[in-house]
Design a protein that fits this description.
By secondary structure, this protein is of the alpha/beta class. The chain is built from eleven helices and eight strands. Strands 1-2-3-4-5-6-7-8 form an eight-stranded parallel β-barrel, surrounded by six helices. Homodimer.
């Protein structure tokens, strides 16, 4: 069984902003209300990898949401480089060849603590989007197939919508992480997400970590919003 995760570490704040200065100002405003941060494409390509190293040195946890997907050697070497940054999570797309390469890269740097998360189907996708992309399966079935493959390959966790968490848990068992974006506190706008739930509902469905962006980052008091989400997580547990 996996080690217990504190309510505070279950919240991951998405730093989806244009500059590291902006991100660092937000982090300062949040203070001790969060300690796990996600860096994706936008910030990653604007100095975010350096920020990741600084956050790790300051005692924070970092989720690098880079969604790697390329030929095997490129993915493997990329994962090995990321392992040296001290990040906790790194995403790859849940294609078997990509996942196998990522596992090789992770295992080549023992002791790094890096965990590989496989992105099954983006939470901005629904069945129509999957069909338009050429998939014969609907979103729920595609998530289930990819989650089962990820477990077989040795991936550490799955990124999926909370609405698929029960299905994913059935496929991957209790010893794999489930990380969910598309979390919106009650009353928050959905934005471009299509498969969303509240923090409490996500935890009750078996999710381990919740990724929350705009409801915190766009709030007038991001510290208060983060604290309320952690409190909701704790209550749901």
């Amino acid at each position: 069984m996996p080690e217990p995760i504190s309510p505070l570490d279950r919240l991951i704040v998405a730093l989806d902003m244009a500059s590291t200065d902006e991100a660092e100002r937000l982090i300062a405003r949040i203070g001790d209300a969060a300690r796990f941060y996600k860096i994706g494409y936008r910030l990653g390509y604007a100095g975010g990898l350096g920020l990741a190293e600084r956050l790790v040195r300051a005692g924070h946890k970092v989720f690098l949401d880079l969604k790697l997907h390329d030929i095997g050697n490129t993915v493997e070497e990329g994962v090995r480089s990321v392992a040296g940054l001290g990040a906790t999570f790194l995403t790859v797309h849940a294609y078997p060849q990509t996942m196998r390469a990522a596992v090789r890269g992770r295992d080549a740097v023992p002791g790094s603590g890096l965990r590989i998360l496989a992105v099954t189907v983006l939470t901005s996708y629904d069945d129509d989007d999957a069909r338009e992309a050429g998939y014969a399966l609907g979103v729920a079935d595609l998530v289930a197939v990819r989650a089962a493959a990820a477990r077989e390959i040795g991936i550490d966790g799955i990124v999926c919508a909370a609405t698929e968490a029960a299905t994913v848990r059935d496929r991957v068992g209790p010893d794999r992480l489930i990380v969910t974006p598309g979390i919106r506190p009650a009353g928050a706008e959905a934005g471009d997400q299509k498969r969303i739930v509240t923090p409490g509902a996500a935890i009750r469905s078996g999710v381990d970590h919740l990724v929350v962006g705009r409801p915190i980052t766009a709030a007038s008091d991001p510290r208060d919003v983060a604290r309320r989400i952690v409190a909701e997580i704790e209550q749901a547990l």
